[in-house]
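Hi support team,

I'm opening this ticket because the web form for multi-chain structure prediction keeps timing out on my end. I have pasted the exact lines I submitted so you can reproduce it. The total is 420 residues across two entries, so I didn't expect it to be a heavy job. Is there a limit I'm missing, or should I split the entries? Thanks in advance, R.K.
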Amino acid sequence: MNYVSRQTLERLPVYLRFLKSQCIDGPINTSAKTIAEALSLTEIQVRKDLAAISDGGKPRIGYITKDLINDLEDFLGYKDVNDAIIVGAGKLGKALMSYKGFAEYGLNIVAGFDTSDEAVGTDEEGKPIFHLDRMEELCRRMNIRIGIITAPADYAQRIADKMVKSGILAIWNFAPAHLEVPDNVLVRNENMAASLAVLSKHLSEQLMNS
Amino acid sequence: MNYVSRQTLERLPVYLRFLKSQCIDGPINTSAKTIAEALSLTEIQVRKDLAAISDGGKPRIGYITKDLINDLEDFLGYKDVNDAIIVGAGKLGKALMSYKGFAEYGLNIVAGFDTSDEAVGTDEEGKPIFHLDRMEELCRRMNIRIGIITAPADYAQRIADKMVKSGILAIWNFAPAHLEVPDNVLVRNENMAASLAVLSKHLSEQLMNS
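Hello R.K., no limit was hit. The queue was backed up. Here is the completed structure from your submission:
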């Protein structure tokens, strides 16, 4: 497996989406220049990123679009299906559970967990929501490796500990909390507070300049 | 206003959350070292970040915790309330509309918009959902500067164009689409596809090594 930097890895899905949006009635070939211009990146950046995951780029011709899409999907693992569970079956948790777009990225949320007895049952799509006590057993049995946290921040660390104990290797954390995990476990923070800080800062600068 | 880098700006809410979690029964003072250790950062990094937004750090004493919290909240604009609108009143849109945690960050979502007549009405909390045709008028009248996009990717650019026309200066984009906007408008992408790529890559590496 080729090593790619975190920054490159985060750009790959953006290339993939652009290529797919072009593909229906687009040209058979795509150049790094076209991609770079469409996505406001430099051509060198695009070339370098794509070289790590595809050997399809040819001088003058560029990339065969469908082959590059294929290479990207292969590399990103979108063809494998990763089963995941979610802890915290509140509004956000349920919204993610029922979001059909994840299938495109190979993510399949099989069940939700919550500590509230009221939440236990099934969601609107019929996916099961269990009591948190049953998480470890279910994760072990189904070999679940991805856990999503949509619980309040105060519970996030305890949930993460429980996930690690259940054999989970990658945690997608929507709670605004810093999590401590062993080295072999990856935490990806969906840091909404950071996003809000960036937005609000931009706003105050724009309003001061106007 | 002090200039801080995007990276620093994204860490500031994390410092704030940590300090607040300490504050109830914690010490009156906090050192950069304590913060660094708790958040797995280097002390130099923490010192540098905090120097940009507070002049409260003293040798041997560190920071007065409540003053530092105050400086962070001031700088991040959490004390000002920013009104926002959201376009795309599906599950994710409604989840964000009803999420009470945003108030802590000074974000107040005043209304939702959708093109589907079925979506128009009020959400569970009684917040109004209007037809998209009314967005410009409402944004102009209420001086709305922040727009949130939770619509499908194919509509995202058209919505962004409409937002720009409505006077919006900062767009929080949850649609997996690249948006073109004028220079004075900031787009913050909540790139879930990138997160999934990072998680899935880590997983396949871990499983290959085991």
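A quick check on our side: Residues 6-23 of chain A form the longest helix (18 residues). Let us know if the file doesn't open in your viewer.
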